[in-house]
Amino acid sequence: MASHTSTRQLRRILVAGAITAGAVILPAAPAMAAPITIPGVGTFEIPEIPGMPPLPTVPGLPGAPAPIAPQVTPAAKAVQAAESKVGSPYVYGASGPDSFDCSGLVQWAYKQAGVSLPRTSYDQASAGVPVSQSDLQPGDVVSFYDGSHSGIYAGGGNVIHASTSGVPVKVAPVSSMPFDGARRY
Q: What percent of the chain stands above pLDDT 90?
């Protein structure tokens, strides 16, 4: 038993010595980097190890696919259009491009996105697909005050709307007005 233990200890010492000697003996050559491309992931610089053969190249591998541009939905375009009019004056009956009433802003913003919406807030509140307040998404048309006022949900609990005479188009919390319903176009 004692000889088995001493043999094991001797092996450990020899292995440790070989590793140490190998570290000292190996030349400190500068590491050269060989690029490797993984399709769909990217190109990486892999350092060459002295004494190891270079990495093989694989001919005919396609490059990484081109990134796919995100699709901008009509709803997102309508939100962007409405955001561009924040600060524009409120004028009763106006539907842009320089001044707006509430439903005029909603109709104009969606027109910029290529979508035709009804003109009045009451008609906007009855068209489209009904959406619950808990399922609001940016671009949904939100109705307030029993359908007499409308705006565009901008996300983050906010709506873009033309509120009233003397107040320009603004962003306000949905909770700042009595919610009546929402529609998705």
A: 61
Residue 89, judged by CB atoms within 10 A of its CB (0-12, 13-18, 19+), counts as middle
Q: How far is CA 119 from CA 84, 113, 116, 185, in A?
A: 20, 15, 9, 14
Its pTM stands at 0.64
Q: Is 154 within 8 Å of 109 (Cβ atoms)?
A: no
In a domain, 96, yes or no: yes
Residues annotated as catalytic are: 102, 149, 161
CATH code of the domain containing 166 = 3.90.1720.10
Tell me: the pLDDT tens digits for 122-158?
999 999 999 999 999 999 999 999 999 999 999 999 9
In a domain, 108, yes or no: yes
How many structural domains is the chain composed of? 1
Count of CB atoms situated within 10 Å of the CB of 104: 22
Kindly state the helix (H) or strand (E) to which residue 77 belongs, with its residue range.
helix 74-83
Would you say 106 and 152 are in contact if contact means Cβ atoms under 8 Å apart?
yes
Domain that holds residue 118: 74-184
User: 50-65, pLDDT tens digit by residue?
Assistant: 776 665 666 665 555 6
